[in-house]
Design goal:
The complex is a heterodimer of chains A (about 375) and B (about 240).
Chain A lengths: L1 H10 L3 H13 L1 H18 L2 H11 L13 H33 L6 H18 L1 H5 L3 H31 L6 H23 L4 E2 L9 E3 L11 E3 H23 L1 H11 L1 H6 L4 H27 L1 E2 L3 H16 L4 H21 L4 H15 L11
Antiparallel strand pairs in A: 1-4, 2-3
Helix pairs in contact in A: 2-3, 3-5, 3-15, 5-10, 5-13, 5-14, 5-15, 6-8, 6-9, 6-13, 6-14, 8-13, 10-11, 14-15, 14-16, 15-16
Chain B lengths: L3 E12 L2 E12 L3 E5 L6 H8 L9 E4 L2 E2 L5 H6 L2 E4 L11 H8 L7 H10 L1 H5 L10 H13 L5 E5 L7 H16 L3 E5 L3 H7 L2 E6 L2 E7 H6 L1 H8 L8
Parallel strand pairs in B: 3-8, 3-9, 6-7, 7-8
Antiparallel strand pairs in B: 1-2, 1-4, 4-5, 9-10
Helix pairs in contact in B: 3-6
């Protein structure tokens, strides 16, 4: 009897483990989802294709489409994962500004896409103007071109943000319906402004010489040997992580960050402490616009072509990310963006046309599980 | 009576489409604790919010240290030396105790001596210095809300029902803290429903009804006059001993 009991205890998962797993799922939904997504894809990559598709291959029939995932192997899985992270981090840069303005100011700025497009064109202008430097292959000159492109994009979109907040947003604080209408109108004006300044045709953006090509992982490294990772994607990962770190530092360790977090909870009580929340709103809106510009400039170099409507198209992913992450949450936005990037690449590997549907599907699934998003923000 | 630090003259206030204050006249003597009494819905909390510039004031005048502050924005009113503790305490739940107090010290870093004095009044805050305010108990949250109001020297404290929903032992701690503030000659306007608490602390009293001040005078006089208590408040303070 004693032996039977101990065998049962050894082989069955104890309630404690289940409870711990449930607590992890609830407490860290972002890690849970990321782990689930990347883990499932890794398992698919590890299972031999011949084993799964054997019956169809032996019978000489077509192998079901979905089983193609088992063909990718760990090297492709690694490439997809790193590329998905790079895409996710670029989306994060573009989305973070919008989630910040929504979290603090409760402003639904659907004109955010206009800032992304504007930033992309500003960045492209610098890269094209200094194309000789970019093509030189000199590390110092390449960094200089990249820095100038990013700063120029941020400067112009930040300045546009000042005008946009004062003229377009300020009169409609507190009224979401009007915000939606006027910010869509603002986005149309920004797009037309791009047509006026740069013309209506697509503008190619030559990627700097040093950022072309890929890093090949040594063949001797098990599982991921031979994987080719684009240098630009690696740079996007590094820039995205640095930016996320900086944002966390500002939000958590500086008085401005404390004010922003306090403002997300209760704008009125921030004013009662003696702080002019309107100035904070303006500063956050400008920062958000500049981040959209930076994201647009980097996305332009990623796609190597820019057009006035790119921001409009990217807004679908941006909106999915900020809803998925929990409106107003920077950390939620970060993990939401990485999830969106990964699912785009994983689904796009099999069927590129389904990538967009998968993105929206991910949002629907997460909202059915957690209607408040991955990491919700408490609001008074 | 000491000279008034604050004076409200014929103040009307609206919240949305509702007209809440119907001409409030009130004077707050400098260095005294004034208690604002009245039934629910009489306009006590709205009076405090109006002083802080949080409601629309279509008519009337609010003067502070001789200046007309009626049209001032809330941050300017706060920086002129008025601290406000609302009924819901208004603490930032996702910020730590430290961050809540650092934010309240709007003019710069917290003065260490002042902080030690606040810790002396509310020792729990020292213990939970790095804890998120949302994780504090109701009494500790109220202590934090009051500590936030006094972390820098202020000319006037507006406190809305600090004892609401608190255990008797916590109420005693708060009473001791207010006594110490009184000893330092702080000017305080306290909205309170707990009559024992109000009587123990109040030097002057104003009673509101239907958006107006219907009685103003010394707390000692009101406490002794049971007929007046019945008339103004519908009960006797003595019955609440």
């Amino acid at each position: 009897m004693t032996t039977e009991t101990s065998v049962l205890q050894d082989t069955r998962p104890t309630p404690g483990v289940r409870q711990r797993l449930a607590a992890f799922r609830q407490g860290y939904p972002h890690f849970f989802l990321l782990g689930l997504l990347v883990g499932v894809m890794l398992i698919l990559a590890l299972v031999p294709y011949q084993l799964v598709a054997g019956p169809w291959l032996r019978a000489g029939e077509d192998v079901p489409y979905l089983l193609q995932y088992f063909r990718m192997g760990t090297t492709t899985w690694f490439v997809l994962t790193v590329s998905g992270m790079a895409m996710g981090l670029l989306i994060f840069i573009m989305s973070s500004g919008m989630t910040l303005t929504f979290g603090l100011m409760s402003v639904l700025n659907l004109g955010h896409g206009g800032f992304i497009s504007f930033g992309a064109f500003c960045g492209a202008t610098v890269v094209v103007y200094f194309s000789a430097w970019a093509a030189s292959g000199n590390l110092f000159l390449t960094i200089a071109v990249l820095m100038m492109a990013c700063f120029y994009a941020m400067l112009i979109t930040g300045a546009l943000g000042v005008f946009f907040e004062r003229v377009v947003i300020k009169p409609v604080y507190g009224d979401h319906l009007k915000q939606i209408l006027v910010t869509i109108g603002g986005a149309i004006i920004l797009m037309e402004l791009i047509h006026v300044i740069w013309g209506a045709t697509d503008v190619p953006v030559p990627r700097p010489q040093l950022l072309r090509g890929a890093v090949i992982i040594d063949q001797a490294i098990p599982f991921i040997g031979g994987a080719a990772i684009e240098i630009y994607r690696l740079m996007a990962v590094i820039v995205g992580l640095i930016l996320y770190g900086l944002m966390l530092l500002v939000i958590n360790k500086t008085k401005v960050g404390v004010l922003i977090r306090a403002g997300v909870e209760s704008r009125e009580m921030v004013e009662v402490q003696g702080y002019r929340i309107n100035l904070l709103f303006l500063a956050v809106f400008v920062a958000g616009s500049a981040l959209a510009g930076l994201g647009g400039a980097m996305w332009g170099m990623y796609e190597q072509i820019v057009n006035a409507h790119m921001g409009e198209h990217l807004m679908i992913m941006v909106v999915v990310v900020i809803i998925l992450g929990g409106l107003g949450s920077i950390t939620g936005c970060f993990y939401g963006a990485i999830l969106v990037g990964l699912i785009n690449l994983y689904v796009g590997y099999l069927e590129p046309r389904l990538a967009g549907i998968a993105t929206v599907g991910l949002m629907v699934a997460v909202l059915m599980w957690r209607p408040q998003g991955l990491i919700p923000v408490l609001r008074h | 009576m000491a000279e008034p630090l604050m004076k409200l003259s014929g103040v009307h206030a609206d919240i949305g489409q509702y007209h809440i204050l119907h001409g409030v006249d009130l004077e707050l003597p400098k260095g005294e604790l004034t208690v604002l009494l009245g039934r629910n819905g009489a306009g006590k909390s709205t009076t405090l919010r109006t002083i802080m510039g949080l409601t629309d004031v279509p008519r009337g005048r609010v003067e502070f240290k001789g200046e007309d502050i009626t049209e001032w924005a809330t941050p300017r009113i706060a920086r002129s030396g008025i601290a406000f503790v609302p009924e819901d305490m208004g603490i930032f739940q996702l910020l730590s105790v430290r961050e809540n107090l650092e934010l309240a010290a709007a003019s710069g870093p917290i003065d260490k001596q002042r902080l030690e004095w606040v810790f002396g009044l509310f020792p729990a805050l020292k213990k939970f210095w790095q804890t998120d305010a949302g994780n504090l108990s109701g009494g500790q949250k109220q202590m934090l809300a009051i500590a936030r109001a006094i972390i820098e020297p202020r000319d006037l404290l507006l406190v809305d029902e600090p004892t609401k929903g608190l255990a008797p032992s916590i109420i005693n701690d708060l009473r001791d803290a207010f006594r110490e503030l009184k000893d330092q000659e702080a000017t305080i306007l306290l909205v309170e429903q707990n009559f024992n608490f109000a009587r123990a602390l109040g030097q002057t009293v104003a009673v509101m009804d239907d958006g107006r001040v219907v009685h103003a005078g010394s707390m000692a006089a009101l406490a002794e006059d049971e007929a007046l208590q019945q008339e103004l408040l519908g009960l006797s303070l003595g019955a609440h001993q």
